[in-house]
Specification:
Layout: E1 5-9, E2 13-16, H1 21-34, E3 37-40, H2 51-64, E4 72-78, H3 85-94, E5 97-102, H4 122-131, E6 135-137, H5 151-166, E7 172-174, H6 180-188, E8 193-197, H7 199-203, H8 232-243, E9 249-251, H9 260-263, H10 278-288, H11 295-307, E10 315-324, E11 329-331, E12 334-336, E13 344-349
Parallel strand pairs: 2-3, 3-4, 4-5, 5-6, 6-7, 7-8, 8-9
Antiparallel strand pairs: 1-10, 10-13, 11-12
Helix pairs in contact: 3-4
The structure holds (4S)-2,6-dioxohexahydropyrimidine-4-carboxylic acid and zinc ion (ZN).
(4S)-2,6-dioxohexahydropyrimidine-4-carboxylic acid (DOR) binds at residues 17, 43, 108-109, 138, 225-226, 256, 270-271.
Length: 351
């Protein structure tokens, strides 16, 4: 394989925030230019809690898609403590909804309707287990006494391990993992478990929240996401995990757009916008890990294999080429600042 050109099966994004309305129209073309499919997160202002809502949201996404682009949104339901087992039946029958998302209440953007007590969801988990409907977990506890940087580690011990003991056949995706603890857990666990890894958690550690690329101190709100970036040892563990070729790890950008002013604020929103250059960012990480030959399976095979969906057949080419990522993109009637705004990227998607 030449190191200047990479031709691979077209990837999918197994974790994406598309928003709605004019914001959706602004960000959707970026993802559709890179990915064939994406798992669309349900955390809209009014969360997508029913199959009927998911079908409506999917129609709005498809109606917004520019005619020249092919893109399949894979829909999810937002789990609440009042989600009924029959809603899981409806989701499964729909052929449109392929997973259910667990947000611990208070964990992140629009998670107010999330779950505080998993015990209240037992009948739903039984139904999901029976229908092989995956549960996508935002793996953080939200108790005030737990340090924000420890939220993922504590989630594994206090929530994930007991959940998987009670529902051993429940398919789980541990979303946007950020720690060595999560890597170790996913590698060692029995049963059906996968994990998505973002480009930003592969490329940056928590120093980048407080220091710019030139080493100057300063708050960098565009690097703030949840789960928050962790220390370098954790980033290295994530890199090693994806470089290992373990098929449990797959691509999920967690691209999460917020208008510039909502990020650059006294209480800025969490989320990194990476959709416009997702594959290019991932390739920089894989190159750092000396693992370009592992990228295709991570980006294009492991996700569909986990979900039991066909792999894509179209191929895409990425070329080594320096280009400058724009400082901002339009975002409804505002703008959005992408991760690595105004910086030189080293790979470019062709076509
Ligand atoms: O940083 C994040 N932003 N993490 C999430 O879990 C949600 C997301 C969003 O929707 O903005
Ligand atoms: Zn997310």
């Amino acid at each position: 394989m030449s190191t200047n050109t990479l031709t691979i099966t077209q990837p999918d994004d197994w974790h994406l925030h598309l928003r709605d309305g004019a914001a959706l129209a602004s960000v959707l073309p970026h993802s559709a230019a890179q990915f064939a499919r994406a798992v669309v997160m349900p955390n809209l202002k009014t969360p997508i809690t029913t199959t009927e809502q998911a079908i409506g949201y999917r129609q709005r996404i498809l109606a917004t898609l520019p005619g020249h682009l092919m893109f399949e949104p894979i829909m999810t339901l937002y789990l609440t403590e009042t989600t009924a087992p029959k809603e899981i039946d409806a989701a499964s029958k729909s052929g449109v909804v392929r997973a259910v998302k667990l947000y611990p209440a208070g964990a992140t953007t629009h998670s107010e309707s999330g779950v505080t007590d998993l015990g209240r969801c037992a009948r739903v988990f039984e139904k999901m287990q029976q229908l092989e409907m995956p549960l996508l977990v935002h793996g953080e506890v939200t108790h005030a006494e737990v340090d924000v940087f420890d939220r993922e580690r504590v989630f594994i011990d206090d929530v994930l391990i007991p959940l998987r003991r009670n529902f051993p056949a429940l398919k789980i995706v541990f979303e946007h993992i950020t720690t060595r603890d999560a890597v170790d857990y996913v590698q060692a666990a029995d049963g059906a478990i996968g994990a998505t890894v973002t480009a930003h958690h592969l490329l940056f550690n928590r120093n980048s929240l407080f220091i710019d690329g030139g080493g100057r101190p300063g708050m960098r709100p565009h690097h703030y996401c949840l789960p928050v970036l962790k220390r370098e040892t954790h980033r290295c563990a994530l890199l090693a995990a994806v470089a290992s070729g373990n098929s449990r790890f797959f691509l999920g950008t967690d691209s999460a757009p917020h208008a510039k002013g909502d990020k650059e604020a006294a209480c800025g929103c969490a989320g990194c916008f990476t959709a416009a250059s997702a594959l290019e960012l991932y390739l920089e990480a894989f190159e750092e890990a000396n693992a370009l030959d592992r990228f295709e399976a991570f980006a294009s095979f492991n996700g569909p294999d986990f979900y039991g969906l066909p792999r894509n057949t179209r191929r895409i080419t990425l070329q080594r080429a320096n280009w400058i990522l724009p400082a901002e993109f339009p975002y409804a009637d505002k703008t959005i600042v992408p991760l690595r705004a105004g910086e030189t990227l080293r790979w470019k998607l062709q076509g």
